[in-house]
Amino acid sequence: MSTKLTIGLFGFGVVGQGLNDIIRTKDLNLEIKKIAIKNPEKKRSLPEELFTTDASVILNDPEINTIVELINDADAAYSIVKAALKSGKNVVSANKKMVATHLEEFLHIQEQYGTSLLYEGAVCGSIPIIRNLEEYYDNELLYSIRGIFNGSSNYILSKTFTENLDYATALKQAQDLGFAETDPILDVGGFDAKYKLVIAASHAYGVLPNPDDVFNIGIQNLSSKDIQYAKEKNYKIKLVPTALEFGERQVVLYVLPKMIKADDFLFNVENEYNGVIVQAAFADQQFFFGKGAGGHPTGSAVLSDITALRYEYKYEYKKYRSNKGFILSNDYQLNVYLRYTDESILSKLKLSEVTERFYSPDFSYVIGKVALSELFANADLLDNKHTFIAEINTLATPTI
Ligand SMILES: NC(=O)C1=CN([C@@H]2O[C@H](COP(=O)(O)OP(=O)(O)OC[C@H]3O[C@@H](n4cnc5c(N)ncnc54)[C@H](OP(=O)(O)O)[C@@H]3O)[C@@H](O)[C@H]2O)C=CC1
Ligand SMILES: N[C@@H](CC=O)C(=O)O
């Protein structure tokens, strides 16, 4: 325990306060010198003189060597993190949208300024997946990474599926518990899971996709009919981000609801818990499980990053630097369940190899194959309450 870490903390909400609670339980030779917040009128649990609304008070303080960024504004976070890294301060962040959107630029800034940006808390809360991908699997050939990466949507699915709670009540609970993003469409629409997937894929495959180029559909259009279908067939519906190698060094990334059976590790991942399944060539299947949201679980991952800075830990982005030449592709076939009302969607999506169909006045669905590129091209057709799409039994057998 050598270098003293003098911290400038941005954000004192769910995660910021969770981190502070944890730090106070231990003697860690670190000090939170100043905390930047947005609203000076809010009542705080710590002395008033610790707080500021002026970012430059922290960024220009030469004693502060570590910035911990835990705010709910990705654009402001980007400016703060960039300025901090360029001024020689190391940064820990839990902001997945900000990291995923600017990862390539941050990679170069870290290299140029010799500073470190760590973000374990940004991906699956308390689960140490980034450091494992970076260090443990650095020489492994990874077939796929998939899982449950969003606590709020999983909480809603658990409550609607097992407790028959209505969607709006379950969402409100996830918000009240501090799991949901400020704009919950990020959670239920699969955006938050996508940002996390993009970050994980950069460490797993060395790809740095623009999140806008990754397809995501969430659970916002889930209806009681879909739940009834799933229950009758012994499925649970989970929101599953997937990164998968296929064909000739191609990688596909997408976020879709998925019908899963009891033999899948994700079947019993409930509430705000997350799960990550890594399928590797030699290690085979491994499963990580833990709380994916909440102040203390996320605060514990943030603290682990802070203390890693003591020994000057940096991500090396080994897979990116070894340039394995993976190409991102949406030219990938998925097997899907599609609930619809307007029959024309089937031809527009070029749905093929139909194995099951059902029509009734108030519920129609089909099961068949569709290319991810077609889903992307027709995303507007899928984004309404009359349509729900979920992947069903498709993980392709990997090829060595
Ligand atoms: N909640 C969770 O379970 C998890 C959250 N995250 C991520 O962690 C980050 C923080 O989330 P969370 O704690 O839930 O958010 P909250 O909404 O609970 O808190 C946000 C904090 O940021 C402050 N803030 C907002 N804008 C600024 C600004 N420009 N300058 C300084 N402070 C600002 C707010 O100030 P004020 O108090 O004055 O309003 C507040 O203290 C987000 O990126 C989120 O995605 C990651 C993993 C889990
Ligand atoms: N809103 C997120 C918070 C953690 O990343 C979630 O619900 O998972």
Automatic annotation (TrEMBL):
Q: Where is the Aspartate/homoserine dehydrogenase NAD-binding domain?
A: 11-120
Per the UniProt record, which residue ranges are transmembrane?
A: none
Q: EC number(s) per UniProt?
A: 1.1.1.3
Kindly report, in one word, the top-level EC class recorded for this enzyme: oxidoreductase
GO molecular function annotations of the record: homoserine dehydrogenase activity; NADP binding
The pathway entry for this protein reads as: Amino-acid biosynthesis; L-threonine biosynthesis; L-threonine from L-aspartate: step 3/5; Amino-acid biosynthesis; L-methionine biosynthesis via de novo pathway; L-homoserine from L-aspartate: step 3/3
Query: What is this enzyme's catalytic activity, as reactions?
Result: L-homoserine + NADP(+) = L-aspartate 4-semialdehyde + NADPH + H(+)
Keywords per UniProt: Amino-acid biosynthesis, Methionine biosynthesis, NADP, Oxidoreductase, Threonine biosynthesis
Q: Name one Pfam family in it.
A: NAD_binding_3
Taking every annotated instance into account, which residue ranges of this chain make up the domain Homoserine dehydrogenase catalytic? Answer: 128-306
NCBIfam families from the xrefs? Answer: PRK06349.1
Name listed for the protein in its UniProt record: Homoserine dehydrogenase
